[in-house]
């Protein structure tokens, strides 16, 4: 029951975010410039954001504000990773905006494996990440087709405090290893395709 009470409290968090969203807008990204800059990212994330190595997440079709926030977090050190911290350190605000616009405009297609019942999705997650792993909340990432090891690592990072977020940290704090594994396996099993870059 604690979780339900917690979710009811999220109304306030989401409202606070909506208010924060009225701050001055960040620079508008230019996707054509982002495509050029994405040459730096393609060996790991693909030019269309479909990851080419298992440890890298798919980033094509994510909401631009999610991509921007993660790149800013790697750059400022609030999120750390041996590769991404180095990559993001050299990006300007304009490049971050351009890259976010480029990867966000990629077209994704997702499908549950044949015979899988969408109602079996982890209920506490589908509210924001969708049953099929396509986020229904602007600041939430898509989880569809991500590698299960990546998803598990991120959830454990939220649980230990290595990665922090006002919504995900308290949610992950209550998850057992088995719940983390089950949620990671569910979303990793979703079939994801991303169209070739335009
Ligand atoms: C050498 C491989 C490599 C390169 C090059 C690279 N990345 Fe990454 N990227 C990763 C890995 C690995 C992660 C997962 C980090 C973690 O585990 O926290 C990641 C994570 C991310 C994330 C977070 C996604 C999420 O779902 O939270 C974003 C956004 C991102 N990269 C964007 C970029 C952009 C933009 C570029 C090019 C400017 C780039 N990356 C270049 C390997 C790479
Ligand atoms: C109320 C909305 C909400 C709910 C419920 C929720 N999430 Fe999240 N989730 C988010 C947001 C927002 C982020 C982005 C965090 C950030 O910016 O670092 C996120 C990030 C994540 C990430 C990181 C993905 C990446 O690409 O790096 C994972 C994994 C994740 N959530 C899994 C889950 C799981 C599993 C559940 C259910 C147990 C869940 N979430 C429930 C909103 C939610």
TrEMBL record:
SUPFAM superfamilies for the chain: Cytochrome c
Annotated Cytochrome c domain residues: 29-107, 110-191
Single GO term (MF): electron transfer activity
Record has Nucleus as a keyword: no
Keywords: Electron transport, Heme, Iron, Metal-binding, Signal, Transport
InterPro entries: Cyt_c-like_dom, Cyt_c-like_dom_sf, Cytochrome_c_Oxidase_Subunit
UniProt-listed Pfam families: Cytochrome_CBB3
Domain of life: Bacteria
Leader peptide range in chain numbering: 1-21
Keyword set includes Heme: yes
Protein name, entry field: Cytochrome C
Source species of the chain: Cereibacter sphaeroides (Rhodobacter sphaeroides)
């Amino acid at each position: 029951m604690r979780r339900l009470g917690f979710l009811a409290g999220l109304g306030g968090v989401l409202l606070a975010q909506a208010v924060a969203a009225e701050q001055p807008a960040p620079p508008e990204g230019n996707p054509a410039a982002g495509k050029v800059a994405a040459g730096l990212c393609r060996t790991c994330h693909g030019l269309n954001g479909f990851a080419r190595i298992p440890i890298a997440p798919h980033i094509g079709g994510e909401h631009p504000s999610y991509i921007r926030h993660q790149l800013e977090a790697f750059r400022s050190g609030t999120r750390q990773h041996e590769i991404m911290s180095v990559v993001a350190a050299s990006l300007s605000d304009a490049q971050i905006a351009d890259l976010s616009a480029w990867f966000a405009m990629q077209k994704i297609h997702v499908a549950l494996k044949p015979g899988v019942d969408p109602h079996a999705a982890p209920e506490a997650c589908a509210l924001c990440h969708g049953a099929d792993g396509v986020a229904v909340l602007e600041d939430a990432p898509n989880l569809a087709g991500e590698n299960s090891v990546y998803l598990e690592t991120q959830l454990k990072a939220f649980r230990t405090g290595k990665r922090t977020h006002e919504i995900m940290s308290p949610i992950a704090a209550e998850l057992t290893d088995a719940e983390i594994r089950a949620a990671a396996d569910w979303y990793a099993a979703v079939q994801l395709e991303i169209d070739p870059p335009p």
